[in-house]
Design brief:
Rossmann fold, 20 strands, 43% helix, 658 residues, 25 helices, alpha/beta, 6-stranded parallel β-sheet
């Protein structure tokens, strides 16, 4: 058996090397070094069914050090994943191939998480392990009981996000999470000793983890560590002592094999050292059969599980949750909410409106998980129906992330990728920069997530420029596959949440105010935010100017409209809660809403990106410097956000037109 394991591991090694050599691009060091560990894990422990790659009760495998993607593709081919053929291996890193330079979840069924930016994978794995605990608490071991395994390198553990993530994993005691550390002491620039003196095992122990150590090139040692890990009552770090580029005659153990092909002579020496006398991409039938046979028992686990689900008393509840079915009554409840808001006419900060809507959503949607980065009392994301998650109670629907925005975003990605829950989280808009890498990865993976970002402008006031967002809206709008909502009142807030629930492959950002805003809408039966922009208050006659505003500035625009109308100036106000959705509408619709009169854009943030809407005679009232500390209303006025200043700009636009 040991001899066959060695052959199976070498099959992984040489498929990986052959892919990289053919592509003339890639990272051979990690696949060569971790092939033995991967072989033991995948052939003896990993509960997967390649013919049913999205089985909800499968073990999850995340390659956090995603530059070693050739290792993952080789394993998937050898175990029979349909999306990874031998031709795909031969097209590694080529345009149009599924076997991209780093693992991309949306390209291959069976890749659990897209990785590449170091540290994102281990943090995403925490989200997956948490999701398993949450589902297990609701439905028991017979339906949900699996592990989350993650390979990490030294780079993943150096990134600051890893500390945030492992801290939470230990705090929640995610005993189903197993991290296998490729401990080869090498990074691109040299030995890890040039940049780090950290005792990694003590670091994990301090965060509540259990530690195992194995020789990463000794099958019995690897298996013993994994046997201990799967019965641990704590999250586990396995320190796998390995050699980067194992078997390479001159580059093994050195940085030179980390991120470049080995070259013809080095590969020839590697084949001689490991006694692999086969052509590139050639795998002997007995080795291929051994790999395919290794997962057959796991396939039976799937069919057994299907039978359990078929007869389970909570089957319908389970299926409803994991498919994120939106209850039919929710639409009517949201309509009733909007009707009540219009009737009451009570001014509310949209962060408070958001809380009220969230309360409705959490009561109706069992798949929702709210949370915040220690700002529940400021962002209002912990509604009355919230039940906090803890290591002693995984039945909750609210997550206390602590002051860990970076990990919060990545853990949300893990929760979303897991495939059962829809995560929401919150912080201040100015702090979204901490989450940007995770939000970008979520957009790349086409995950459904909702980010609630409050304290949306200079209206924050006394906290000053550090807390007053300027460029953040422009950054979010520039990111592909992200929908940004900035609602103007309670009605638009409800509409934006409704649209976010329907955005199955797009992260949505709902940006809310700290200051109170009046209810502007008079109708509620149609979701006007669906169009991204619409006329919220039409002019009394033919338009002289169109004011285009978002969020908290819409009410200011309506105030200015009323004042200007008294002076005989006809002004229409367009609310644009989502620029992305507006740009998806037909050109005819856009032109109809914006009109031919000069446009004045009003947004208390960067002007970047608004140029396309001002036309030849328009203007932008924006903020392109950092803010100032002081009373929120006075700060806004200082930067020109007052009725008087808007009137002056409008009159100047009219004079220029004439």
């Amino acid at each position: 058996m040991k001899e066959m394991l060695s052959k199976m591991a070498n099959a992984v090694r040489f498929l990986s090397v052959d892919m990289i050599e053919k592509a003339k691009s890639g990272h051979p060091g990690m696949p060569l070094g971790m092939a033995d560990v991967a072989t033991v894990l995948w052939s003896k422990f990993l509960k997967i069914d390649p013919s049913n790659p999205l089985w909800i009760n499968r073990d999850r495998f995340i390659l956090s050090n995603g530059h070693g993607s050739a290792l993952l593709y080789s394993l998937m081919y050898l175990t029979g994943f349909e999306d990874v053929s031998l031709d795909e291996l031969k097209n590694f890193r080529q345009l149009g191939s599924k076997t991209a330079g780093h693992p991309e979840k949306h390209l291959i069924r069976g890749i659990d998480f897209s990785t590449g930016p170091l540290g994102q994978g281990i943090a995403g794995a925490v989200g997956m392990a948490l999701s398993e605990r949450l589902l297990n608490a609701r439905f028991g071991d017979d339906l949900i009981n699996h592990k989350t395994y993650v390979f990490v390198g030294d780079g993943c553990l150096m990134e600051g996000i890893s500390e945030e993530a492992i801290s939470l994993a230990g705090h929640w005691n995610l005993k189903n999470l197993i991290v296998l550390w490729d401990d080869n002491s090498i990074t691109i620039d040299g030995n890890t000793s040039i940049t780090s003196s950290t005792d990694m095992k003590k670091r994990f122990e301090a965060n509540g983890w259990k530690i195992f150590v194995c020789d990463g090139h000794h099958f019995e040692s690897i298996e013993a560590a994994l046997k201990g890990a799967i019965i641990s009552d704590k999250p586990v770090l396995i320190d796998c002592k390995t050699m980067i580029g194992y078997g390479a005659p001159t580059k093994g153990g050195t940085p030179s094999c980390h991120g470049s092909p080995l070259g013809i002579d080095e590969v020839k020496g590697l084949r001689e050292n490991l006694k692999w006398n086969y052509e590139p991409f050639e795998i002997p039938q007995d080795i291929l059969t051994a790999w395919k046979d290794s997962v057959k028992s796991h396939q039976k686990l799937y069919t057994d599980w299907e039978e359990i689900l078929k007869n389970h008393p909570k089957k319908e509840e389970f299926l409803s949750l994991i498919t994120k079915q939106i209850p039919s009554q929710l639409k009517n409840e949201l309509i009733s909410f909007k009707e009540k808001e219009i009737k009451d006419k009570k001014p509310l900060a949209t962060r408070k409106s958001s809380q009220n809507v969230l309360d409705i959503l959490l009561k109706n949607c069992s798949f929702l998980l709210s949370g915040s980065a220690d700002l529940a009392g400021a962002c209002y994301t912990k509604p009355f129906s919230a039940h906090p998650v803890s290591k002693d109670d995984f039945n909750g629907n609210y997550i206390h992330y602590g002051i860990r925005e970076h990990a919060m975003g990545a853990i949300m990605n893990g929760i979303a990728s897991y495939g059962a829950f829809l995560p929401l989280s919150s912080t201040f808009l100015s702090f979204v920069d901490y989450m940007k890498p995770a939000l970008r990865l979520g957009a790349l993976m086409q995950e459904q997530e909702i980010y609630i970002l409050t304290h949306d402008s200079l209206g924050v006031g006394e906290d000053g420029p550090t807390h007053q967002p300027i460029e953040q809206l422009a950054m979010l709008r520039a990111m592909p596959n992200v929908t940004v909502f900035r609602p103007a009142d309670s009605v638009e807030t409800a509409e934006c949440y409704e649209l976010a629930l329907q955005s199955k492959k797009t992260p949505c950002v709902i940006v809310c105010s700290r200051q109170e805003l009046p209810v502007l809408r008079k109708d509620y039966k149609m979701n006007m935010s669906f169009f991204g922009g619409y006329v919220i208050s039409e002019s009394l006659g033919e338009r002289d100017v169109t004011l285009i505003a978002t969020g908290s500035e819409v009410s200011l625009a309506v105030e200015a409209q009323k004042s200007l109308q008294k002076q005989g100036i006809n002004v229409a106000v367009v609310s644009m809660p989502s620029r992305e959705l507006f740009e998806k509408q037909s050109i005819e619709y856009q032109m109809f809403i914006l009109g031919k009169a000069p446009h004045l854009i009003i947004e208390a943030a960067s002007s970047f990106g608004w140029d396309r809407f001002i036309g030849e005679t328009g203007a932008i009232l924006s903020v392109d410097t950092f803010g100032a500390s002081g009373n929120g209303k006075k700060v806004l006025e200082k930067f020109g956000f007052s009725v008087e200043n808007i009137e002056n700009i409008v009159k100047e636009l009219i004079s220029l037109k004439d």
